Amino acid sequence: MSKKWLNIVYKEKNPNRLKKHYKQWADDYDNDLQAWGYAYPKKIKQILSKHIQIKKNSRILDAGCGTGYVAETLIDLNYKNLVGIDYSKDMLEIARSKKIYKKLICQSLSKKTTMKSAQFDLVICTGVLTSGHVGPSAIRELLRVTKPKGYLILSISETIFSKLKFKDELEKRDSEYQYVHLTKPFIALPNHNDSARSRMHTLQKK
Q1: What is the average pLDDT value for the chain, to the nearest integer?
Q2: DSSP string spanning 50-105?
Q3: Which domains does the chain show, CATH number per domain?
Q4: Is the pTM of this model over 0.85?
């Protein structure tokens, strides 16, 4: 385990270099997240059990799916109609080996994707809307591919929520969704000294 990777990927501004970083990190990624106490899977379980209700065959997008680490939680909850999208081919290769997705797409969420509009009952995007990765413009794309009355679960770090204009983007699009739940701030990686405090934003598209 190397704690360096978290700082490297979140400080990187160049997309091509970021892709190379994830290529080097891919094999150790799951083990590192587990060792650092990755909190998002547990938070997603809580949201799906307490705050929203979707059918087990619901079509779910794992946006910025990486190796499929978070999606394994969905499989444990018996949600199996999963689609993953990520821009790292190396991360997707590991996700593909787990055989938990119906489809995997190698594209960036920083621009409009080739995915059809209004096709997902639930969109999950954790650890992606952050510095050096995907900016606030992705919220528009994630809303686009969500069905009316469908849900979005987004993690956004408290330190960049206003600074990088995620707050502004959500306010700009508040006619397109309603808030269902907003968690209290929590440490995303409790066993990593440099982890940010995040919140999970659960929205329902109008």
Answers
A1: 90
A2: HT----TT--EEEET-TTSTTHHHHHHTT---EEEEES-HHHHHHHHHHT--SEEE
A3: 4-205 (3.40.50.150)
A4: yes
